[in-house]
Amino acid sequence: MTEFIAEGSDVFLYLDQRRTYLVKVEAEKSFHTHKGYIQLGDLIGKEYGTRIASSMDVEFVALKPNLRDYIFKTNRRTQISYPKDISLIILYSGIGSESRVVEAGTGTGALTSAIAHYIKPSGRVYTYEMRQEFQKNAKKNLERAGLLDYVELKEGDVTEGIEEKDLDAVILDMATPWLVVPHAYTALKGSGALVSFSPTIDQVVKVVEALADYGFVGVETIETLIRFMQVERGKTRPQTVMTGHTGYLTFARKAVNAPQQV
Amino acid sequence: MTEFIAEGSDVFLYLDQRRTYLVKVEAEKSFHTHKGYIQLGDLIGKEYGTRIASSMDVEFVALKPNLRDYIFKTNRRTQISYPKDISLIILYSGIGSESRVVEAGTGTGALTSAIAHYIKPSGRVYTYEMRQEFQKNAKKNLERAGLLDYVELKEGDVTEGIEEKDLDAVILDMATPWLVVPHAYTALKGSGALVSFSPTIDQVVKVVEALADYGFVGVETIETLIRFMQVERGKTRPQTVMTGHTGYLTFARKAVNAPQQV
Amino acid sequence: MTEFIAEGSDVFLYLDQRRTYLVKVEAEKSFHTHKGYIQLGDLIGKEYGTRIASSMDVEFVALKPNLRDYIFKTNRRTQISYPKDISLIILYSGIGSESRVVEAGTGTGALTSAIAHYIKPSGRVYTYEMRQEFQKNAKKNLERAGLLDYVELKEGDVTEGIEEKDLDAVILDMATPWLVVPHAYTALKGSGALVSFSPTIDQVVKVVEALADYGFVGVETIETLIRFMQVERGKTRPQTVMTGHTGYLTFARKAVNAPQQV
Amino acid sequence: MTEFIAEGSDVFLYLDQRRTYLVKVEAEKSFHTHKGYIQLGDLIGKEYGTRIASSMDVEFVALKPNLRDYIFKTNRRTQISYPKDISLIILYSGIGSESRVVEAGTGTGALTSAIAHYIKPSGRVYTYEMRQEFQKNAKKNLERAGLLDYVELKEGDVTEGIEEKDLDAVILDMATPWLVVPHAYTALKGSGALVSFSPTIDQVVKVVEALADYGFVGVETIETLIRFMQVERGKTRPQTVMTGHTGYLTFARKAVNAPQQV
Question: When you count CB atoms within 10 A of the terminal residue's CB, does the N or C end of chain A come out lower?
Fold first, then answer.
């Protein structure tokens, strides 16, 4: 079915790849850009994807925001906000529409949003964060993306323990992931996945050692690079600007009856 | 809840990172490896993730197969079977638990499986393939992964038209994706996503030109690289072996009332 | 023998990796930085590599400038100034202390300097440039680096012909290298090397086709990436900032009696 | 001057990028390949780069071997044989036609050959190796490449000391480079360069710490990646096969009067 923009809907206003805006549609409001303003009420009743001219007659497109748009328009105060990393975390963790997942820390809620999106409608995310102001901001972002119903925001220190049991996955984006490995071992189902994102190689070594101590299998560490192409007949080339590093991803699966398990 | 292995379950027998086996558990059968055989019946009633010794007393772990395990244990007769590419296709296409998606071509069903996994339980994948033997094989793979209910396998040539309407995404892994752009434009919802995977830069240029002709927005082309790390205290280093190229990914979103649209 | 700084010597004043200055030592002069000034006369008679305190008591090191220091402190008005590319051009072109090399265009003289450094003392570089202001600037840079004696700066358009004969290498960093291939074929010795640096893939395709037309062998195109590491026990990681693309390098060698040669 | 092939010359027989042969021309000999044999005497008096048909009428090209050809046709028993690394070592070390350089270990002599080539004709390489059989092989390779006159092959353990003084550069490709840093400090001129090639990040951390202890400046660590392109109009793409890692390169320069220097 064709989807139409309604009062109160979010739209993702697209001018070009660098200038996009996540905006809530309200009948009486206008949205101001340096290319003129847009009467948001004019969008009501239009199909998503409609083109609309600003007061300076510059054309914008009112896209329906998707997961990625929500993630990358949220406050970026913490590290992991790279689609290349988030997408591999989702795929390698094996989670799906019924998974129960613990995440730490919540940070901006970017990764939380992605997990919540993919465990919909029957799964659940338990996300731990110690800093209240982060939690508050993440809650707002999750609410806006329509994902808050699938998430339990918890204030707590996951290095001291995980309250949940029989988890499908534990996903860590925090400074000392190796301290969580014992708790993750207890909290995970047999065969469940642990994923850790770390900027430094020293963190990776410690996590991998902790995983070995607890008999995890399928342990592997990767890094990914993404490069944008500038595509135009006669002038095609990779872009000059590139991110050289975000972090390493370590994956593992829980084996039960581990010899090291006391 | 703890999950137990039953007669008829699949298990993912793990010896090490290079030696893993996707096996159906049957009470009377044994599974032979060069490290001895495993009495599959012994696994029945055990928790997933259990360790089991082979006849040569080599330890295997009986993991519960996840999406990735199914994808990478299916027949690899076609190109796209790289997690780095599949995972970004899923994230960037914006699909989720209710999305309706057209895919072409079906190939081994690897990408089909991933799409089906993430549009569960309320979405649907329509996958086009012209070669019957591929379709047959893909069907078997989807069935094994428990995803066939979410997929409609279609024999047809997507360059001649797409039968579905109001799609959330069209995902292309085929030789001439630019020929599908006009049909994708018609078949997509406003704001819907088109994703194309192509090994050569020439294909990319043609797709990007076709997307511009139809007024798609948010057009971007990327390539990703993945590198495995060898992690061991005192000997940590990236692995020597690396895949240098799989293909380029092009993403776009449909704008409606495109000036170029006749 | 220990080398000492003299009146008129260049020194490469090093504060840290980002703050370095190429300075000529004059007895009565001081060099001003935002970390205080340095009395250059104090360096006279000291060994290269000596530490010296500024007026604000910040320590600098007075290194002897090497090729790389000269290259990267010259005016960067043109494209190729990347050590990863320059160094492979030098190695793959096979040039050495007696080689005769044509280069086009001269640009800032960065690549010219590198070629001149490595064909010392018995080789010669003939470098073509059409824009007088570039030539002038390059001349100044070469003179400062002590390499001008090995270089002939020529004002001319290499797409219209190369005056030299029996060259060991022709090295191209220009917009239309394929137009030079016929002239390079004539100007090179049998077995001589052609190297071309191009930012776009379209340029590469045209060069490779032209090389095939003239029967060149050993044709190969590469790109290189360089990534800086941040090394500190407990915090080691690749740097976030990275250059994603400079250009492609194409290498070839002249075969004589080519069937395609008219 | 045109250069002609003589009795006793080496030629680099080129069939295609993967099939090349370094061969000494002798009047009465023939060289056998699976594409037929070549009468080497027929090459005498011909220009380098000449095309020659084998007995099976397959065309080869008799190139004049250059540095790279010699390096990559020598016995590859040790690690560093990657042009991307060798070329940056040469450029960043700042060496040229008069430099005095210590290298350890000699290995196959691949890097030794490169250094020798670039310090010609007035410089000198002192290369340390503890294993006699390596030294013997390296000597043969250097002799063949015409570079032995510029090299002193030394049997010795550079972790116990360096006999030379006032060196322009110390270049290390060995397991424990940090043990050589104190000796390199003593052996180098002020402002001289130390370069270390190491496969593991652990080695890098130790070297960087040792360099800091001795007050070296300009310390930086990089890694490089090289990717081959498959260039053909309509089918252009990076090659699938790629080397993911060879080693890290660490560079530094000696500052004198270091506070840490006792």
Answer: C
